[in-house]
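[scheduler] slot 2 assigned
[scheduler] job type: sequence-to-structure, two independent chains
[scheduler] chain ordering preserved from manifest
[runner] begin chain α
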Amino acid sequence: DRYDELVRDILKTAYQTHQDDNDKNAPAVPAVGIDLGTTNSCVGYYKPGRQNAGQVVIFKNRHNSEVTPSCVEFRDNSEHPVVGQEAKDNRLANPRNIIFSAKRLIGRKYDEPEVDRDFVAPDTKLYPFQVVDVGDNDAGVEVEVDGMVAQFLPEEVSAHVLRKMKEVAEEKLGFPIQNVVITVPAYFMDAQKEATKSAGVMAGLNVLKIINEPTAAALAYQLDRFEGIEARKVLIYDFGGGTFDVAVLKLEKGKVEVCAFGGDNHLGGDNLDNNVINYCLQEFFAQTGILIDRTSAEGERALRLLRYSCEREKWLLSEAMSANISVDNIVNGQHLEVRLTREKFEELNEREFQRTIDRVDDVLNGAGMSVDDIDDIVLVGGSTHIPKVRELIKDHFKGKQPSSRVNPLQAVAEGAAIQAQKHRNLRVLDVTPHAIGVKTTGDVMSSIIPARSPVCTVFTKQYKTIVDNQPEIEVEVYEGEKPVASHNNLLGKFMVTNIPPAEAGREIISVMLCVNDDGILKVRAEVLSKGTVHEIEVTEHKGRLSMEELLRRRH
């Protein structure tokens, strides 16, 4: 079929690239793009064509599907975890050892309210596996294999998914893959991006770049489009399994400029499922008078069965007007039967749908635009298949139909593949997702780079000494919008020394921050009276595992 023909053509091109690179003593591997999703992941390769045109193939796995569930199962008597559809299909039989939605945990702290609510607190948790503090307040998962308890960081779980995607690509290309571009939500904090990069290292990959998912989707939309036409303003609406992103970009041939973006790292299809689950529990109580105890073993089993049924039936509502959620012997020999209409599903999730529209307006305001300024709307992510979502978007944009140029489930991987092969020739002008600043007296956050600022722009702020004859100042750099500095994400710190003796407030230290287009933050502090300069670069590996530890944990 057409897919097989395309793969054969790409294999021929990739093999020639492989040979040419060998002849030049260059890395003998083409680069691929991976969409590391909350629910599903996929991998793609960009095949250049004539006159800089090209096409992307998303490789199919052994189940003949372009998407692979981001599920990892740790099994007894097995050297390696099981990843993908087989793990997902076994969730009811081995619930505590099958990890999914790890993306919602990656780079996060155990005491964060969202982590506690959804993964830890007995009366509200919605996931069957155990989430624990694995040290330094880092959230991780705990499994039991061959009678032994083991703990893993979410990036270790994600590494297994990335390794699986690497294998999918290698099976089609016929030789090893190392170079990769991986996508992340636009609103990820630096720690979450670094944890994702760490996952790539543990998977045996050379991560060329981490790019934002809306940017990747824009690259897929842009492919081969801009011959002879003017630049266009495009809004990317990315409603996935665990996160929501929205971005406004200006697209020209060979150039992508991010005007503004925003999002919610805790809003996705999982939230919609959870609302349906809670509704079904309420209906079951109304029908039987039985209140299911989430903290009991029987209650945990009931939730697993119910989640499985809700996930399956939710998709039917994109085509049908109603679905029946049914679980035999959910507890005490009782059967759960709930008829869920599309109207009721929309009512249950009205707040979540409206939150996405509110984020759209926030981003448009941040870009200084209105809905009338947008030329095209690109829908990305599985949740955009929901009819109500498409209706809300169309109504909000005064009847404008979203573009059908890209596949919502594959667009992010396609864009990552384009970035992977063209990363030296493609101009992506990004913005910083969060404010960056320094800690001042009283643990107050003093922002220097505002959120949504263009990268490659220098920002400077001046600070004074606070005590007489102050010899040094520690500069702590944080990322985030919280007024208490230590509640934000620490990026780095260093000492400014040899400050001349003087009364408090006489000596001035100028702090300069700049983020380049590779995400490297340069910090420069100068004692103005002496002209002495202290500099650091927040670059290379700044995650929670050392490079040596990452290499040791390679899968």
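[runner] end chain α
[runner] begin chain β
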Amino acid sequence: MKSNHDEAFFIAETKVVPLLDSKEAARFFFDMLIELFEDIESSIHSNPIYLNSINDKIDELSHVLKHVDETLVEILKSRGSISLNANIPLLIDHIMLTIGKEEL
């Protein structure tokens, strides 16, 4: 498990964060995360989802992640912080830690 978390942090820091070079890019990234977690929440409650192309992964995540609603709230808060000139790499780290605590 620890290696998966370490790998996820490494990928986030080296591949994702460099792409988020503007507030608009960061907002788009967080919007996609919000949509993903809303679909995971919908899957948990057997409601229809919108990201049909990754339906299998959403279903798998709905069984693995325990605190989807709390994570979604943190993602929404982080997206709101972008307009307050928050440090985007730190926001990504915070979200990664929030998602990572799901499995602990």
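[runner] end chain β
[qc] chain β: The mean pLDDT is 87.
[scheduler] slot 2 released
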